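Let us work through a complete example step by step.
Step 1: write down the sequence.
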Amino acid sequence: MVKAYPNGMVPVISETAFYKERRRVTFQIIPPCNGRIFSLFTRNAWLFYLDADEYSEPQSDSTASNLPLQKFSSDVELNDIVNKVVDLCIQQLLFADGVPQAFEWVLNEIAGNVLVHSEAGYGWMQVVTYRENHRLAMIVCDSGIGIPKSMSVKYKFKNDVAAIELAMRRVLPVNHNMVKEMDWLVLWQAGALAIAQNSMGIFALTSSKGRVRVVEGKVKAKLHFPPYNGTCVDIQFYTDKPIDLPTALWGHRPVDYMELAFEDDKGRVVSRLRDYATSFGNRITGERIRNLLVNLLRQKSG
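Step 2: predict the structure and record it as tokens.
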């Protein structure tokens, strides 16, 4: 093995957990021989979640460019993880207007769906920044009942692909009042799809025997084998392309982390440098702080 990415590893970890817990299958984990790849598996907590008896959970590092894989089972855990992700990303990348709010909304909606609808009890989330090409990748997986089974309560369809397409291709609302009347499962998929298309990014959703992928605005659907036990969503944004979030969400403007974390009771944007570093004598720290301040100026221009 010479390369490994979250959108390949997180589904494997989710599937492994499914077979361990529900089928009582025992796995023998053989770690990568390549030292660099072994370190990657360790830093991202992939080895820990594959075999917690053999490998330790990585220590948190405030200077890290990415968070390791996160497991969440409650709204409290989810809120904390999303806040950490946004806080880290606005220090690592420069964002065009509307992008931080868009990826925060998508992350909350997809991960929240895991807790509300999947019946899995927990989910997996990882977000990775790629500074060299202005890209942000997020992956959320669960081992629950899957979208086709969840959709079958209200809708009829011929196969798993049709179930996912039904949610993503049905007539979208034209105003905010219609959004309130939409099925919640349909809404988050339609919203995430609209945001991915807006930014010319990538959206891939795999559930049971169905897979739908959106690349550069084009939707492609196909049967997926072997079946995936649950749902896996992979989204990639280009952070240098502006996103009009209210337009993508049919007039809805969600409250975002930057608004809650940096605005005081008078509406002023306040950032205390001492909250982000104890020393400012090196370029790495300087770049993190500069990214944070530039993002605040861009997203809160008033």
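Step 3: interpret the result. The beta strands are 70-72, 123-130, 135-142, 202-215, 218-238.
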